[in-house]
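Message: I would value a second opinion on how I read folds in token form. Give me a protein, with the fold worked out from its sequence. Write it directly below this note and I will take it from there.
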Amino acid sequence: MPDYTRITVETRGHVWMMGLNRPKKRNAFDLEMYEELAHAYGKLDRNSELRCGVLFAHGKHFTSGLELDKWAPMLASGKWTIPDGCIHPLGLDSSARCRKPVVMAIQGICFTIGFELLLAQDIRVAATDARIALLEVRRGIYPVGGGTVRLFREIGWGNAMRYLLTGDEITGPEALRMGLVQELTEPGNELDRAMEIATDISNCAPLGVMAALKSARIAENEGSEAAFARLIPDLKPVMESEDAMEGVMSFLERRKANFKGR
């Protein structure tokens, strides 16, 4: 495990908590913060005891975005690599995404990379004071972390262009209305609610959760026909698992299932 200086990590039950931890800088992203987060995603993916992740931020704001002067040389090079064993939190490589779901909690400003991180996570909770924006076109560049690919899928073409091409902000209530976030809380409660959702997920059968997430991603990236073709073949190993038997037995015995992830 590396020395985490830009983020915090903590395990609660089967939930892996990853917290942006530069509050005095409004959690601005330098390259080190991104690489630490990528390492944390790699651990979530590999560790069988971890079943769900929660991405959040310390302080009043999720992130003010990239420290552009730190990122400019890398962006200008046209190459973006991360260390071995890491996984892009932005999900830029569809063949090497974290196989476990991540719930994201946001508060305050959530700009540029923060917005794109939101789009790459599976479930999002926002505080009412959230301010979400893709500001890149106001800074001479454009979003390269997935915003141009994912935003119109979430809120429709016209709505996406409305914010992608202007850099205007989306408020927490507006984000809920458009489906960018799934729940809205009072400021300060967003992390607790995200943890509740992640804990609910971690109490379900891990192999079933990962299979469901994989199937949905196949449909998103390859289309419905590809996803339909994989439904039964990908179900077979899940049906052969101990957890599948435990699911049946708990149903018959009218008790809560105790899943082991095997």
Summary: DSSP finds ten helices and nine strands in the chain. The first strand starts at residue 7 and ends at 12.
